Amino acid sequence: MSGRILWITDRYPPAGGGMSVSCARQVRGLRRRGVAVDVLVLGAANVFEARIEERDGGADILLPAETEPAMSSNQAWILTQTLHARSPYSHAVGFGASTGGFHAVTFAAWLGARSTVLVRGNDLDRDWFWPQRGGMVREALSRATSIGAVTMEKVERIRALYPSARVEWTPNGVDVSRWELLPADRARRDEVRGLLGAVDGVRVIGLFGELKAKKRIPFWLEAVRDLGLMERLRLLVVGTLDAPTAAILDDPAIAPRSVRISFSAPDQLAGLYAAADFVAIPSMFEGMPNVLLEAMACGVVPIVSDAGAMRELITDGVNGFLFASEDRTAAGTATARAITMGGAEYRKMSAAVRDFAVMEFSPERELDVLCGLIGV
Question: Which residues contact 233 (CB under 8 A, 6 or more apart)?
């Protein structure tokens, strides 16, 4: 395929969050493979006027957030036409089906190019039902040349809505070598476990990432309390919390002992993942969480709901513990089964978890699938 790819998103460093991480990983991976990719970022963080930053393999086109959304969109189109005249775009990719996808299919039509929309999770689970964004999602999915989705259940839901569309599974990937523990990581792990008082018989459960309402942390903590498990576990909370979850964790009467770290640089995460025995993701709805794959790459055993891709990745009792989303009894039972495992049984499952991440979700596989979908 000749020409360049125009990759459009509102999630790209330094925006932060799981989508931002995935977006950057895929763009950098494509550029390493020699694919020319220009990234157009709508509403880039800490950007106050439009600028273009040249990179190896493409450019980052950063547009500030505007009080009038049409300002950014029209400025993006003006810049796109200028860049297209210099070196034509043959394909536009929308990362996310709302903002990114809507602009990608629109610009592709105006340029006479093909388009791909990458469905991540919230765009179908939340934005589809949100009046302000639902129209953008529907327009993006109806016009796209091809559609990728991070979970098979989303592939099936999109196919049911758009039977003639080309829709394929495009899983995330994880570079396991990045999560090998260095001496500093081991020291950090031991420090955190010491702060938590993780003695024999006490398990550390990690809560990582953007812990928004959909993550259902209060719901899961109710399940923990129902079964009297509070004294058997400690919480390592790394990331951002919504106000209700923070209030609960502040109350020792209704939450286990915890250590909270609001921000951690990516190169410090390995030691924090390693400090946890388990990672809990009790979400109501999900895509394919980077947190899950990163924790698994560190051998951390998942305790997760069956939302999104988690039902596709986790085999209950083999490489984690799975429970039905929004079933509080099942959530408590899965947690109890996990934290009462014997040491030998835990080590066996931990090894299985890491092997699964290595074998099934390599970055190269992620890029192979993505390249096949886009046609590069």
Answer: 202, 203, 204, 205, 224, 256, 335, 339
Q: What is the pLDDT of residues 241-257, one digit of tens each?
A: 989 999 999 999 999 99
pLDDT for residue 267: 86
* Cβ pair 19, 45 in contact under 8 A: no
CB crowding 221-259: b at 16 or more within 10 Å, else e: bebbeeeebbebbbbbbbbebeeebeebbeeeeebbbbb
Burial tier of 289 (Cβ tally within 10 Å: 0-12, 13-18, 19+): buried
pLDDT at 50 over 80: yes
pLDDT value for 295: 96
Ordered domains of the chain (ranges, CATH): 4-173+362-374 (3.40.50.2000), 176-360 (3.40.50.2000)
**Cβ(375)–Cβ(1) under 8 Å?**
yes
Q: What residues contact residue 87 under an 8 Å CB cut-off, 6+ apart?
A: 3, 4, 36
For residue 241, what are the β-bridge partners?
211
Q: DSSP alpha helices (H): ranges in the chain? A: 17-32, 69-86, 99-111, 122-125, 131-143, 152-161, 183-196, 217-226, 243-249, 269-275, 290-297, 310-313, 328-339, 343-360, 363-374
Handedness of CA 369, 179, 94, 160 (dihedral sign): positive
Taking the model in full, what pTM does it have?
Answer: 0.91
**Residue 257: which of 209, 194, 212 has the closest Cα?**
194
Q: 329-339: per-residue pLDDT in tens?
A: 999 999 999 99
What is the amino acid identity at position 293?
Answer: L
Reference 191, options 274, 124, 76, 87; nearest CA is 274
Structure tokens at 107: 């610009």
Report pLDDT digits (tens) over 294-306.
999 999 999 999 9
What is the reported pLDDT for 19? 59
Instruction: Count, in order, helices (H) and strands (E) of the chain.
Output: 15, 14
Q: What is the pLDDT of residue 186?
A: 96
Instruction: Report the pLDDT value the prediction gives residue 339, as an integer from 0 to 100.
Output: 96
Torsion over CA: 131, 168, 161, 101 (sign): positive
